[in-house]
Amino acid sequence: MMRFYKKSIALLCLGMLVSGCGTYFNQPLGPQDARIGELTPKSRVLEELPLPAEPVVVGVYNFKDQTGQYKPVENGSTFSTAVSQGSTTMLIKALEDSKWFTPIERENINNLLNERNIIRSTRDEYRKNKNPNEPSLPPLLYAGILLEGGIVSYDTNIVTGGLGARYFGIGANTQYREDRLTVYLRAVSTKSGRILKTVYVSKTVLSQAINASLFKFVDFQRLLEAETGFTKNEPIQLALKGAIEKAVEALIIEGIEDRIWSSKEGTAMNEKLVADYKAEKKREESMRLYDRVVDEAPRGTSLDVSVGATLFDGDLRKKEFGSMASVGLTTKLTPNLNLFGNAKYLNFQGGKTLDEDYFSADLNLEYDVLPTDNFGPYIYAGGGYLFGEEVSTAKIQYGLGVVYKLSDKLGLRVFGEQNVTFSDEVDFTINGKRDDFYYNFGFGLKYYFGGNSKKQNQDGLELTEQQ
Q1: With 0-12 CB in 10 A as exposed, 13-18 as middle and 19+ as buried, what is 123?
Q2: Which of 31, 150, 222, 340 could form a Cys-Cys staple with 364, CB 3.0–4.6 A?
Q3: pTM (2 decimals)?
């Protein structure tokens, strides 16, 4: 027993060292120099956009935090805001990086006007005394478009969870949390006041913690205690910067689509930018909040073909895997409930004494946990009958599996189930009071007969028809 504990301790220490080495080796050992601010993936996207035909002069008066959220803590909240109050500066930086806009100072316009008044007064005095030909102060640029909007929401704890286990003083746990912020950005024409385009972007903020600990008496009056762990918090400032940059990118490309502005390279580049953006937008719109892909065509009636293995567990000591093949039909009763019937060929193996073929017919009620997702688990239970040359018996079965839709018509299915028979003679051996049972493990394809096709009416609105 002591050897077992020592091995467990060694394995835990090794696991803690391996899992936390990245954190330990990156611990700061002293003050660090100032560095250029970090870039987000969208920073590169903005910098790599093609040049515009002509940069647009824009003004940003105030792109502010409209959430009113304070930073949450365990015992309530603090007076520190949940998101940065410098979002206007971030937006101006993103506009500069894109090279599609010429931002002008409007956030602190009073300071600019005061300084121009000082310059004008000084020049007037100088002109009177020494140089009457001193040129006048040039006029200010004015904006053709105003950019408005702000941070409209910051939702905390939209997803929380964790996992942990402890056994005889040895334990580990992990916790995670996701927040979400949403940014709206709109372009307004200064000539007419018309809103030219509005876009909005959401960004999740991830926090994660991993801990491991050990508390064990390794010998009499000898206690070993150790713990390790690390926490990673995605910087909210970078998350906000990425959301604003994504909003600027969306504004540029949707403006190209509406012919508000154009790239320098002309129609071909415009069409490519819009096509790539639409493909990305379609992919993102098909994903829910937690990056779950929405299944546009519902999983309706399907033909199921599967192969796999069977493991018989009866009265024989030696247990071996046999083969299995099945064909079935699934039909939808409600959004979550399906009726699933199938026929199976089964080959049971058990040493030298058991090599027998059986057939079964099953009828199950299936519960689809995520019926509108592209990838979803399901559980099922039902009854059936097992047919053999010498032994036939009723049975019940239950199991679970997952379905992944490869396309609107084709899906991949993986499952495992237990079958409990009402006979102790399936393996031709009677020993004890327990009836025989067996397991099936398999994978296969699902062919969907139904589906939704999208068409458009004369007004350009999408219509959905059942095939």
Answers
A1: middle
A2: 340
A3: 0.67
